[in-house]
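Structure, all four chains, one model.
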Amino acid sequence: MDFDLNDEQRQLKESIDRLLLDRYGDLNQRLGYLKRPNGYADELWQQYAELGLLGIPFAEEHGGLGQGLTETMIVAEAFGRALVVEPYFATVILSGGALRHAGNAALLAELVPPLVAGKLTLALAHQERQARYDLADTATTARADGRGGYTLEGEKCVVLGGASADQLIVTARASGARRDRSGVGLFLLDAKANGVTRRDYPTQDGFRAADIGLSAVRVGPEGVLAGPEKGLEVLERVVDEAIAALAAESVGAMAALHELTVDYLKTRKQFGVPIGSFQVLQHKAVDMFTAVEQARSMAYYATMMAGEDDAGERRRAVAAAKVQIGRSARFVGETAIQLHGGIGMTMEYKAGHYFKRLTMIDMAFGDADHHLRELARAGGLS
Amino acid sequence: MDFDLNDEQRQLKESIDRLLLDRYGDLNQRLGYLKRPNGYADELWQQYAELGLLGIPFAEEHGGLGQGLTETMIVAEAFGRALVVEPYFATVILSGGALRHAGNAALLAELVPPLVAGKLTLALAHQERQARYDLADTATTARADGRGGYTLEGEKCVVLGGASADQLIVTARASGARRDRSGVGLFLLDAKANGVTRRDYPTQDGFRAADIGLSAVRVGPEGVLAGPEKGLEVLERVVDEAIAALAAESVGAMAALHELTVDYLKTRKQFGVPIGSFQVLQHKAVDMFTAVEQARSMAYYATMMAGEDDAGERRRAVAAAKVQIGRSARFVGETAIQLHGGIGMTMEYKAGHYFKRLTMIDMAFGDADHHLRELARAGGLS
Amino acid sequence: MDLRFSKEENAFRQKLRDFFRAEIPASIRTKVMENRHLQKEELVKSHKILHGKGLAVPHWPAAWGGANWTPMQQYIYTEELQYNGVPQPLPFNVSMCGPVIIAFGTDEQKRRFLPRMAALDDWWCQGFSEPGAGSDLAGLKTTAVRQGDHYVVNGQKTWTTSAQYANWIFCLCRTDPSAKKQLGISFILIDMNTPGITVRPIQTIDGGREVNEVFFDEVKVPVENLVGQEHRGWDCAKFLLGNERSGIARVGYSKQRVQRIKELASQVMAGDRPLLQDERFREKVAAVEVELKALEMTQMRVLSEERHSRDNKPNPASSILKIKGSEIQQATTALLLEVAGPLALPYRADEDEHEFGANEPAEDLAWAAPAAPGYFNYRKVSIYGGSNEIQRNIIAKAVLGF
Amino acid sequence: MDLRFSKEENAFRQKLRDFFRAEIPASIRTKVMENRHLQKEELVKSHKILHGKGLAVPHWPAAWGGANWTPMQQYIYTEELQYNGVPQPLPFNVSMCGPVIIAFGTDEQKRRFLPRMAALDDWWCQGFSEPGAGSDLAGLKTTAVRQGDHYVVNGQKTWTTSAQYANWIFCLCRTDPSAKKQLGISFILIDMNTPGITVRPIQTIDGGREVNEVFFDEVKVPVENLVGQEHRGWDCAKFLLGNERSGIARVGYSKQRVQRIKELASQVMAGDRPLLQDERFREKVAAVEVELKALEMTQMRVLSEERHSRDNKPNPASSILKIKGSEIQQATTALLLEVAGPLALPYRADEDEHEFGANEPAEDLAWAAPAAPGYFNYRKVSIYGGSNEIQRNIIAKAVLGF
């Protein structure tokens, strides 16, 4: 076992941290990006491309850097610390993951280069309002047109980055009942294709999401990213990798929030002394520290296991990580606000934004209790 | 609503407290009683009789005092504070409850007077080792002899006060499958009857219990306390009243343990100051106080609802009380030991004995999580 | 000992419930139950309906519109208000400033302020906290310097709820800088329309704008607006903060929230069954119901003892009402968030703000939109009015004698 | 970054596991796994088997029987010991007194004590805590007064584990009463057979008798039994308490407990299904497994960083190992108690005590008998070796810089 970063990884981390300190160091910079038309800073997206961040997980043969989950973890943790709002998660982690695992050579060759160059953004549209956390639950239909293409009909909701994306990867059911595990395919389509409607809105944590309507949307054979026989398997793999990335992002946000809180306790004076001199608040800060370190350990564990081919083992490990991340984040977020008092409740201060992001990460792809339930049903960890 | 004790109730409380201060004030007195042949002080049992404690729940027509659950609560709380080991719970609450609710006039007339006079002790033998917390689960059989009597065959375990009891009230199945709700009767038999064997042992919290074997034990018609058609209904009523009494006993023990802990924090010196000057320990003591008060409120609630005729409403209320009592007791007990440090771990000090009694009360008739499960299944409280 | 409500008490409850449901517009009560922001007009309307029936200030002396209720009746009233989604009569008027004026004010002040206060013809806000004086309220720095028949007020207050609606503010100001801390503070009433007052809204993390900063720059206040003795304002503050034990646990409010959670969770599907059928979820709900029932009984015990203890020395148990009450309120917001699940993500701008200028999420998901903001916003209940840490300090000292 | 065990590490683990299971009597390992008391003879036997293979003191310098393992190998060894129910080599010998003598002792002391210590030919116990010196260890009062070539020791130690088995005790004694607190304390080795020493057992609430009081009345100790410099014993104490980070989390132990709980819960019926099928119970078990996996990974991180940081400055994360480790151990005892349910009630006197003189509960319920005593007894793990409150104080200071 070896938890050290190698030189390339350390350089990667340092260059990201440097950039984000410059572009996200002041909370008002972020609030400014949120008001941009797309809800993020396009020029920053270009800089990520120049740093090579957009190519990390893609094989070199497809125009990527051929790096792995560890590098993704480094990026995600840094983005969590800075509360980055660019659609890295939607485009590189989710959509990029779908591209990689569907293994459609033609589409990889066509899409990865522009994606890596920052010229193409994508969004993964899988969520439906009745589905909650059941990835198989898909009411959107894909009717085969007999010529290898499909016609899509249905509604997707809270699609991250859905409004600004150039192209959409949509899950739709070609056969079977609404919650069957088989029969769901992944389809690639232009976000402006006929029959596609998008309602854009901000999310609780400052990102953008969209509800997407699909009415008689035609997809040619070239747009079939993964056929109905393997769509769900691909989606589950993508989501497990995505959870590992979210775990790292959450750890980054938790660690930064903890540091912010400790600093506040040391500087905020009441009763003529820094409130950090009160033992009860010190011990709360210690318990936050413990929660962060336990979460960090499980983020590493998720990163280590998310690439596992045995789906059962992978799922249990990732579920376990999501449980720890969610519980730690809940405790760290709520305690940080409590220790800050009123100031923590304001939009003008960074703590509340960390708290909101941590809360939403817990709920993404199933909250801690959901994954605890799944883990327990699968027989637990050992 | 009115939470005040009336004059008689106040007098009752004062007389009990006076007696127990005298006979249980020093922990060594209790440790002495435990070493007696029956595991308790027979002469104290007589004094309870003289105080009228043994007659509280029985109707005057049967030789009792015709008092109610409130008076039982007063006694139970006082016994909890003093960690009383006499078999009041086994004889008066459990067995007495069975006598009252079975409503067998002949047996009431025969048994209540000697019981109230302290001349007769009983034990309720319902637990079987496979049954866990399922009151219906009864493998012990009762074979009708065609002359109104039965022959009992089977094994009972951890019967409180089972070894010292003069008579036993036994649950046995006359018909149906092991876990059926119907077919279980209550039978009264002499503890020395042919075919009855008893293995006596101490319990974790200082009481005595027995495993009881029943081999071809004959019970005449006069020994049928409650027939198979109503035995379970009676048992459930008895257990709900018993839980209300245990809740009060638990509150008495919790409150005393909390006071003991606060006193210790004020007197124990480390680093040249009383450890009670440390804010973290103060707040722990405050959270213990909160837990005790919440438990006290639910002990009142259980007392108020245990007499309810609507079985469903009664069960939900009593289950809710058991949940709160169990959770408060767990927190108060563990925290008290933690705040005491090593001394709390020793047999020579009272805190540990409270902790053990609180733990065992939580497990009696189902622990907090068991009752939370039952309550949730029944649709919750509101 | 009789632990059930009397027939009279139940009838009293029913009468109030019928009135609230019949007379307070459903649109307003629904908004409260769904935890959405109310407009000023809605709050005024509801308050005046209550006032018309003598239900705005029942706890005041009869001479000023009170109803001479028992503590238990007062509790039933509060619980029914909360349970039925009726907005509380503006607490700054009826529970904070009003009682202070009744206890410390001059007859002139009572005649001048109480009737308009009870009728919500004046809207009051509270000028206590300052950037440097939160938990340590007595550390406040806002000064009121006597100049002839006026005080000149300078300084800044913060966390001032609904200052944007208020035309009056009651303030703690330092009138004697030489005296130390609690001494030298005065309780002063200030007309918000006086020149030199600036109100700046503070946006909270849920997106709401219910609190404000209030700046005082050379604000002239007539001396007759002093309540009680000069420099003795801390007595008024202590009295105010110690007041109103019957509503602080917010039992009725939490009861309504739990019921709503159960209704929604019986409709939201989790896999092949309603979320409410999921064992873990329904046990979490039941656990909150147990805590809430215990709190309700604790509240009852406090009230039943207040009946006789006329010395107004509260039952020790009363000190846990705020801590447990806030914890339970927060637990209900977390449960609602869990019910909403992925549908909680969309941010739905409130009526009063559209800064993102974006579209709204779908209308039929409106029920889920307040879930996350409610969870975020309710972190405040364990912070304001003396944080739960401060509450524990108080109990440690006052109850446990540390 | 490579987060998996290497092939070599896995082979190393397998070799140890095979040896432990083959060579350590199953009767002993079963007793450990069922949390029942071991007799002295059993502990000695197991220790000597390990020592025969050089597995009693692998972390000592090679010169004294060490194995030159990497921190990771040391960890795997400890985890496998715990996981397979092998009693740890007596910690007072191998992890406490031994390392102190190696670091501070004279060559003569090393030659005299270390070999017999490693072989458990001498049984050592620890004389640190006193009735007045628990969390505040430096407040100890036991004195050692120099008289020619002897110290005369007077005072009392307490919570001395297995003093009844020991023939040696290492003590902290005050040699300079004038110096304040930490200064003026010396680390002294005392032969338990010296006249003037009395051992009194303390029965703990689980019924066990593992700890004792040790009284010193005019006990003469040769000066050559002083370790390190006179009056500088606190350095030895700090060194000793800071030692051994690889075993403190007790991950292997808890893993074995969780596995046993799952086995038992799959046999115990709750209603119509095994308890392990109950959603709530299995989710509680899973929650502990998650915490335990996180702790294991944290432990790995600490070890992997110790590899390079030769300054022996521990990773901040190491400070949470004791807190989390103790919480998880206690959680497992609570789960086992829940599995036993009503069958946990019977008290089963240990081999060494029959004070109640009563019968035993049925033999086939023996598995349930240690459940409650284990739960009671394990409250100690958050108390001894610096309570979790003290641990938090340390982290607040050392890690967070308060």
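Chain D touches chain A through 48 residues (CB under 8 Å).
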